Amino acid sequence: MTLYDASSLAIPEELNEGFLSAIIDHIAHPIFVKDREYRFVLLNRAMEEMLGIPRAEMLGHTDYDFFPKEQADWFRAKDLEMFTGGLPVEITEEPLTDKHGQQHTLSTTKVPLRDAGGSITHLVGIIHDITPIKRAEEALREVTAALEQRMQERTEALLAAQTELVRRERLAVIGLFAGGLAHQIRNPLGSIKNAAYLVKLANPGGDDDLARAVSIIQDEVARANQIITDLVDYARVTAAQRRLVPVGLLMEIALSAVELAANVRVTVECPDELPQVFVDPSQLQRALQKLMKNALQSMSAEGGHLTLSAREEGGAVLFTVADTGHGIPDDVRQRLFEPLVSGTAGSLGLGLITARALVENQGGALALEKSDHAGTRVMLRLPIGE
Questions:
Q1: pTM (predicted TM-score)
Q2: Which of 70, 87, 124, 249 is 20 to 30 A from 371, alpha carbon to alpha carbon?
Q3: What is the pLDDT of residues 296-316, one digit of tens each?
Q4: What is the 3-state secondary structure (H, E, C) of the chain?
Q5: What number is the average pLDDT over the span 168-172?
Q6: 362 neighbors 302 (Cβ within 8 angstroms)
Q7: Which domains does the chain have, with CATH numbers?
Q8: pLDDT tens digits, 190-227
Q9: Parallel, antiparallel, or unpaired: how do β-strands 31-35 and 40-43 relate?
Q10: Are 383 and 362 in contact (CB under 8 A)?
């Protein structure tokens, strides 16, 4: 076995300083040395490149000559901590601004350098520039936040779709229920109506209490019959038989089918040059009649103003039914297109959703809008024929 004399491998004393400087300069991480006056006495090439400041300018100077005061105060406090405690100081994250104003995030270790007697003469700083890691972490956070936002949006969309599916299923059940219900209830209602009529004939100008009771029976039979009619109307939204129809004619026929009270004023606004709409006239008239009936019910006590208007916009005809009635409370407005929700007492709440179903059956759309005045404003968007 060959033994090597360690002394024969020693670096000549005159080469020590240059040899060690070359080693430090080839280390990829920034390294610096400060004396007890906190002055830079040595920096390697990596430190010079990171700061963008020539080493010759930094030697003999302190942090306060190169960095913002807040950062220099931080560096000085950590230097003092090392000199005072005599132990290495680990700084996991600290900011540094280079000569060009670029922000860096550093992870720094500061260790004491002692003389032969054990006294601390210098501070050696070893830096890991973790700026790329912090940027990657920030980019990852942004991507994660974007993904979370997309997941939240997808979740909300799924919940909305589920809610809509449940609503449609409920409406489908109502539709299936309506046909059988109408036949089974209308027969006894007819018998009650006929019986009330016979009682009324048998009491011409007689008992007032009996006359009032008969009147109540007739009114309630009519109300029950209307509920059945609403159910049947909703159940029979069949495929549309669409054709070109003048808007003014639709307004005229729909308006002629409703009973107007004396205290209700009607305004019709329909320009002659409006294009024809491509709809099923029977279904659209049913939709308009339901909307007008709702409007008239909301003005039944005090009366008011019913406005029917139409205009062309965006390749469609916008048809508006507006009234000056009591309006719809905000809490009801948000749920008004749900079955069995109504802004009118004694109503099943199927009139508006039936009207919407009929309009959508034409390839159109129906929306409830806030009116500038008291009352309700419903907008129908109807397709124009080609």
A1: 0.47
A2: 249
A3: 888 877 778 888 899 998 888
A4: CCCCCHHHHCCCHHHHHHHHHHHHHCCCCCEEEEECCCCEEEECHHHHHHHCCCHHHHCCCCHHHCCCHHHHHHHHHHHHHHHHHCCCEEEEEEEEECCCCCEEEEEEEEEEEECCCCCEEEEEEEEEECHHHHHHHHHHHHHHHHHHHHHHHHHHHHHHHHHHHHHHHHHHHHHHHHHHHHHHHHHHHHHHHHHHHHHHHCCCCCCHHHHHHHHHHHHHHHHHHHHHHHHHHHHCCCCCCCEEECHHHHHHHHHHCCCCCCCEEEEEECCCCCCCEEECHHHHHHHHHHHHHHHHHHCCCCCEEEEEEEEEECCEEEEEEEECCCCCCHHHHCCCCCCCCCCCCCCCCCHHHHHHHHHHCCCCEEEEECCCCCCCEEEEEEEECC
A5: 65
A6: no
A7: 14-129 (3.30.450.20), 136-235 (1.10.287), 243-383 (3.30.565.10)
A8: 788 887 777 777 777 667 777 788 788 887 777 777 66
A9: antiparallel
A10: yes
Q: What are 274's two structure tokens?
A: 């409006």
Q: Which amino acid is at 269?
A: E
Q: Which two tokens mark 21?
A: 């400087």
In sequence order, the 6+-apart residues with CB closer than 8 A to the CB of 32 are 40, 42, 43, 44, 47, 124, 125, 127
